[in-house]
Amino acid sequence: MAAVTPKELVMVLDCADREALADFWSQALGYRITRTTPPYTALTDPEGRGPELLLQQVPEPKQGKNRMHLDLRVPAMEPALSRVVALGARVLRGPFDDAGCPTTVLADPEGNEFCLIVFESA
Fold first, then answer.
1. Which stretches within 11-100 are classed as H helix?
2. Are 11 and 114 in contact (CB under 8 A)?
3. Nearest to 34 by CA among 77, 107, 25
4. Angstrom distances, CA of residue 96 to CA of 115, 116, 122
5. Cβ atoms of 55 and 13 closer than 8 Å
């Protein structure tokens, strides 16, 4: 039997208020809100390069640290940091040097962790 491999990667983020997070993440990523079918809202890269981000509204609150998080590679920490903070993110740690890459750990409006990382190739 031939191996079946996925055709695309979709990132799913559980949330309490998918509409509020859709607004935050669409602006933070430069994505478009492409469909909403409760309990889901899909965000897609208008250039078709990045994976879809699917926000799934769930009844239970977030508990503890995320086991998986998003890293946003940016060409410079500023103005990227000021931009996401103005959208509603809050800084949890940093900026700091992480193996030669300036990094800041943040939380989205619901407390989901993500990082801004400056890579030379970004």
1. 18-29, 77-87
2. no
3. 25
4. 11, 11, 18
5. yes
What is the β-pairing status of strands 10-15 and 52-57?
parallel
- 0.70 surpassed by pTM: yes
Q: Where are the alpha helices (DSSP H) in the chain?
A: 18-29, 77-87
Tell me how far apart the alpha carbons of residues 31 and 64 are, in angstroms, rounded to a whole number. Answer: 27
17 membership: H or E segment, kind and range: none
Please report, as a single letter, which amino acid is at residue 88.
Answer: G
Token output for 10: 């979709």
Q: DSSP labels for 6-58?
A: -S--EEEEEES-HHHHHHHHHHHHT-EEEEEETTEEEEE-TTS-SPEEEEEE-
Which residue do the tokens 């998918």 mark?
Answer: 18
Q: Please give the Cα distance from 21 to 109 (Å, whole number).
A: 7
CA–CA separation, 47 vs 76, rounded Å? 22
pLDDT digits (tens, 9 = 90+) for 54-110: 999 999 988 888 888 999 999 999 999 999 999 999 999 999 999 899 999 999 999
